[in-house]
Amino acid sequence: MKPLTAGTIATAATPSSPALNARLTNRQALARLAAAGIQRPVGRTSLEGVRARTIQGVIALKRASRCTITITGGTESGHSAGPRSHARGYKLDLRTHHEGACLTPWIKTTQHKGSPRGNDPRWHGNLDGISLDYVYEAPRRGGVHWDITFVWDIARTDPGEWASLRGPE
């Protein structure tokens, strides 16, 4: 995504717009998050190559839930591979404890309960035309968190296509 230059007019991208599939630099992602009041990710979390749609989705989540959002996982190595993976910019991990204590009840009471992913419970929702797949991950080694995938509106996507796009879980 090219930075705006003098005389350039920024237009809002629609959820299906190619601009939302664009990959951002870490700096661009952090600037968008800061403008929305979301703190820098914790630790060594990277947002290099995150999708613009993913950043728009987490901002929409903050606005809808009115919760503090803490990103604990982004595009850094160490996550599972797949077509809609962290490395490909479609997923973020969010904290569930402390400031995440607001987010968990919001997801569980306002989003739609789905089939579990393995032993991990799952919810689905749509915010600002972006579909969110929330998985409450409880790894054996600790670090319970929300693993959230941000994609285009599932309502406009064939269910078979959605399943194939999610890839291995």
Question: Could you characterize the architecture of this molecule?
Answer:
The protein has one domain. Helices cover 24% and strands 22% of the residues. It has four helices and six strands; from the N terminus they run H-H-E-E-H-E-E-E-E-H. The protein has helices spanning 26-35, 52-65, 103-110, 159-166, and strands at residues 71-73, 91-95, 112-117, 120-127, 130-137, 145-152. Strands 1-2-6-5-4-3 form a six-stranded antiparallel β-sheet. The model is unreliable at 1-17 and 160-169 (pLDDT under 50).
In short:
This protein has 4 helices and 6 strands, in the order H-H-E-E-H-E-E-E-E-H. It has 169 residues and is α+β, with helices and mostly antiparallel strands.
Topology (elements, then pairings):
Blueprint: H1 26-35, H2 52-65, E1 71-73, E2 91-95, H3 103-110, E3 112-117, E4 120-127, E5 130-137, E6 145-152, H4 159-166
Antiparallel strand pairs: 1-2, 2-6, 3-4, 4-5, 5-6
Give structural attributes:
4 helices, 6 strands, alpha+beta, globular, 24% helix, disordered C terminus, 169 residues, six-stranded antiparallel beta sheet
Instruction: Write down the overall mean pLDDT.
Output: 81
H/E topology pattern: HHEEHEEEEH
Number of domains: 1
The major β-sheet equals:
6 strands, antiparallel
